[in-house]
Amino acid sequence: MRVTKAIKAEQLHILRTLYPNAKPALEFKTPFELLIAVILSAQCTDVRVNIVTSRLFPRANTPEAIAALGQEQLEAAIHDCGFFRMKAKHILETCDILLQEYGGEVPADFEALQRLPGVGRKTANVVMSVAFHAPAIAVDTHVFRVANRLRLAVGKTPLEVEKGLQKAIPREDWSDAHHWLILHGRQRCKARKPLCGECPLAPVCPSAI
DNA sequence: CTCCCGATAT
DNA sequence: ATATCAGGAG
C-alpha cells in the first residue's frame, strides 16, 4: 500500500474519531509536577508513574521539597518506576539547577529543558506541549512504533519520525495527534500483539495483518 | 552501542 | 525465557 497524503489525512481522521477526548495520561497539577512525572516515565508505564507521584507529590512537589528529601529518600519514593538510582540523581540535579538558575521555576524553553539532567528531547517536547501549550510532538516508544507502522511518518530515529509527523499533521493538531498515537499504541497497535483484526485503521494501514 | 531497574505480559 | 514499558546518559 502506498500511503498518500490523502490516506494520511484519513488515518488522522479515524484516529480523531477513535480518541475524541485525548489528554495526557500522567497526573500533575503544575509544570514542575509534570516535569518530574515525565522524567519518571522513562521505560515505565504511566499507570505506575501515577501511583508513585500520588504518594510523592503530597510530600514534596517543589524543587526545594524534593531536594530536601535527598538521594536515599527519593530513591525509595520512586523505586517502583525503575532506574531509580539514576532517576533520583537526575531529579536532584535538575532541582538544584531550577533553584540556582531559574528561580525554582520550570523554564518554558525547549533548549533550556534539554540541558536539565534526565531531560532529553522527548521529555522536553512533552513539557513544552503539555505544560506550556507550545507546538511540539514528543516521539516516545508508542508514537515511534505507530507512526512507522501507519507510514504516517517513517524514520529510524525518533527525531526523523518527529520531523515527518510535523510535515504530515496540521500544526493545530500536533498536541491531539501525539495523544491519539499514544492511546492507539496502548489500546490497539500494541508492540507485541497488535489487534489488527479489530482495528478501524486496518483498511488504511500498510502494516495491517 | 550499552547500561540503568524491575514488574508484567506473552 | 524474553520483550516491553510516555528514555536518557556515557
From TrEMBL:
Known catalytic reactions: 2'-deoxyribonucleotide-(2'-deoxyribose 5'-phosphate)-2'-deoxyribonucleotide-DNA = a 3'-end 2'-deoxyribonucleotide-(2,3-dehydro-2,3-deoxyribose 5'-phosphate)-DNA + a 5'-end 5'-phospho-2'-deoxyribonucleoside-DNA + H(+)
Superkingdom, natural source: Bacteria
Cofactor, free-text remark: Binds 1 [4Fe-4S] cluster.
Keyword annotations of the record: 4Fe-4S, DNA damage, DNA repair, DNA-binding, Endonuclease, Glycosidase, Hydrolase, Iron, Iron-sulfur, Lyase, Metal-binding, Nuclease
GO biological process: base-excision repair, AP site formation
Chain ranges of the HhH-GPD domain: 40-187
EC number(s) from the headed UniProt entry: 4.2.99.18
Metal-binding is among the record's keywords: yes
Co-factor requirement: [4Fe-4S] cluster
InterPro entries: DNA_glycosylase, Endonuclease-III-like_CS2, Endonuclease3_FeS-loop_motif, Endouclease-III_FeS-bd_BS, HhH-GPD_domain, HhH_base_excis_C, HhH_motif, Nth
A GO MF label: DNA binding
Top EC category: lyase
Binding positions for [4Fe-4S] cluster per the UniProt entry: C189, C196, C199, C205
PANTHER family according to UniProt: A/G-SPECIFIC ADENINE GLYCOSYLASE/ENDONUCLEASE III, ENDONUCLEASE III
Family under the similarity heading: Belongs to the Nth/MutY family.
Main function: DNA repair enzyme that has both DNA N-glycosylase activity and AP-lyase activity. The DNA N-glycosylase activity releases various damaged pyrimidines from DNA by cleaving the N-glycosidic bond, leaving an AP (apurinic/apyrimidinic) site. The AP-lyase activity cleaves the phosphodiester bond 3' to the AP site by a beta-elimination, leaving a 3'-terminal unsaturated sugar and a product with a terminal 5'-phosphate.
Protein's name in the database: Endonuclease III
